[in-house]
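Comment thread on ticket #2218

A.B. wrote:
> Attaching the input chain for the structure job we discussed in standup.
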Amino acid sequence: MKAMAGLLRKPDGVRGRVHAVSAADAGWGYVGFNLYRLEPGDVAEEATGGNEAILVLVEGRARITGAGQDWGEMGGRMNVFEKTPPHCLYLPDGCDWRAVATTPCTLAVCLAPGKGSHPARRLGPEGIELTPRGTGANTRHVHNIAMEARDVADSLLVTEVFTPQGNWSSYPSHRHDEDDFPRMTYLEETYYHRLNPPQGFGVQRVYTEDGSLDETMAVKDHDLVLVPKGHHPCGAPYGYEMYYLNVMAGPLRKWRFGNDPDHDWIWRRDNPRV
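C.D. wrote:
> Ran it. Output below, let me know if you need it in another format.
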């Protein structure tokens, strides 16, 4: 892995493509992420090239064509914090897609290497349910868009998480940075953050147990955080609800992680039967 650029990425403006992170730009090998903020009539279009893509209508609606098909108008929720299941579209490598916004629209493009093994298909809103995870101040609510239980992609693992005010998420601290299945899988990861109300902030720490990487960031609405390795918990201050969209990918499409030994007791206390 090359030396990492900054882990916290601020959006480039408020309209058009405001995030554009390729695996090469990130200094790693698998995950890419683009984000478009569109007004009615605005167009976003890309060629997937060697990557597969999952388009996530974070909010708003757009007419989408891709992989030689017209998918019609997609999108349901107008504000991400409605928490209704997202409309998403899987597209294999080697195809083009185009989206024309029909309302104000936030469109995420999740990218990872494709192998041509899966056809283009809608993902959600059917089959995606808001599921609670954790207990107490570690409670959050998850939409599993394309985790390993759904055989819909070659590399991509995609999920979105809603963390109530005052709660923690991606916690107890865990990492997935070794290619040692079944003990652990190597997965690069991005976090696309939103806050409600939008003037708020959250906190995310990315650190390794040996201290070679230890960054704590104040994240704001539409910020992106790269997680190349290590643990990566985040918290939502009182008064502000946090959302994030996770994209993960690595050499094996499975999510196996290890807890920080210092904090593993919390996980074991909350999961006594595991």
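A.B. wrote:
> Thanks. Noting for the ticket: The chain has a mean pLDDT of 96.
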